[in-house]
Amino acid sequence: MNKTSFSMPPNLNPDQASPDWMNKGDNAWQLTAATLVGLQSIPGLLILYGGSVKKKWAVNSAFMVLYAFACVILCWAAWGYRFSFGDKMIPFWGKPNFALDGHYLMEQTFLGKFPNATMVYFQGVFAAITLVLIAGALLGRMNFYAWMLFVPLWLTFSYTITAFSIWCPDGFLAKMGIIDYSGGYVIHLSSGVAGFTAAYWVGPRLTQDRQRFPPNNILLMLFGAGLLWIGWTGFNGGDPYVVSVDASLAVINTHICTAASLLTWLLLDIVFFRKPSVIGAVQGMITGLVCITPAAGVVQGWAAVIMGICSGSIPWFTMMVIHKRSEMFQKVDDTMAVLHTHAIAGSLGGILSGIFAVPKLNRLFYGTSGHYIGLFYGLADKRTHDGFRQIGVQLVGVVFVVVLNIVSTSIICVVVQIFMPLRMSEEEMEIGDEAAHGEEAYAIWGDEEEKLDPKYELAKSKAGGQVEMV
Predict the structure, then answer these.
(1) pLDDT of 35
(2) What gap in Å lies between CA 281 and CA 278, rounded to an integer?
(3) pLDDT given for residue 100 in this prediction
(4) DSSP SS3 for 142
């Protein structure tokens, strides 16, 4: 770029790359935290999904993540950020505008001592991982072209509404005093409900895939899970928007809760199934990460342990007991169980935040104590009304996010279905990656026995001969 043709924002001295209002430490940490969150998706969830599914779906599953991340980042800068954090248009939505202008990007953001460009990046990777989590419910059968259309529509007409309502100071739930430190509602409850709803509309995998769907590479899955866990340091540690003691508290609480949740899930597997399951341990890890997210910097360490025990046991019970006995749950094919690991764990974390949130820590994060007080402290400080009020606000948030995502996701799926099928054909699902993309994950070590199966040849011919024999 020709530097002489670039006009600086009016509040930025051309000779001053770091303006007086910017805190270099805050800006550096925010960029680092955003990158850690980005790594949770690319490559974290990309390889977690790619390793968790059958070999024939490894490419498709990873590609859904890669596409979602790229699409969201572009749409976020073009219009999503201003819908979510711009000037209020209505109580749950900002005015549409771009976040691409150099003047705007280099001005100070409304929530910290760093430029808008940093905030757009930070919030963009949060929006991206939400769509990536939704993909987890749809692996192994969604038409990739339908997914390409679903992603920008859901970002625009669901995510931005929730983000503005809860995180933007002008949002109606933010004004009510809802506690959602880093996305228990905006990201996890939303993605869990939206993923389960979309799974209903897309339909199930093939019967044989539902009955037996072993991971094709557990070590790869664990590598992705490890990136997800460590990346959560930026996920929760970046949300004070300042290098502070609250950020440090959020980080250590995140790891404490996650460890407690993983160990709780592991013990339950050992007690009831007589075997320690590595897949179960990963599920417990995820529910712990999700549960602490809305509370990370506003609860004490002992509360984080209690939350970890709850997140390792309650979602375990809903997944291992209720889900298997419920006819409704059995009808919906939620591939990665996002309803349990994200929707239930996220709402659990939101409610527990309303119980354990400390007034002093709320002041550090929100800048005011206001009505922000957990029920536990409300009873102890004789502020019973405020404590119960906080629980009520947290429950209102759960209801709002659940209803919004059921309605918006259903409408989007119906609209997409007008233009193309949501689900692959039976023949394409029989083959997997080669039918969908003409590629396979492990071509050198391909399962030749599968290709000798007469059903494979039949499916290949019905899919239009898209599969090349090697």
Answers:
(1) 98
(2) 5
(3) 87
(4) strand
CATH number, domain with residue 139: 1.10.3430.10
Environment class of 99 (CB within 10 Å of its CB; exposed 0-12, middle 13-18, buried 19+): buried
Where in the sequence is the domain holding 450, given as residue range(s)?
Answer: 427-462
Backbone φ and ψ of 450, nearest 5°: -65, -40
Q: Which two tokens stand for residue 412?
A: 């989007």
The predicted pLDDT at position 444 comes to: 59
List the beta bridge partners of residue 93.
90
Amino acid found at 193: V
In a domain, 469, yes or no: no
For residue 369, what pLDDT is reported? 63
- Burial (CB < 10 A; 0-12, 13-18, 19+), residue 133, is buried
Are the beta carbons of 216 and 159 closer than 8 angstroms?
A: no
Residues 344 and 275 in one domain: yes
Going by C-beta distance under 8 Å and a sequence separation of 6 or more, which residues neighbour residue 307? Answer: 257, 260, 261, 288, 291, 292, 295, 299, 349, 352, 356
* pLDDT at residue number 374: 92
Tally of residues, the chain: 470
- What does the DSSP 8-state code read for residue 93? E
* Amino acid 5: pLDDT: 38
pLDDT in tens, 242-252: 999 999 999 99
On whether the CB atoms of residues 177 and 371 are closer than 8 A, the answer is yes
Spell out, as residue ranges, where the chain has pLDDT lower than 50. Answer: 1-8, 14, 445-446, 466-470
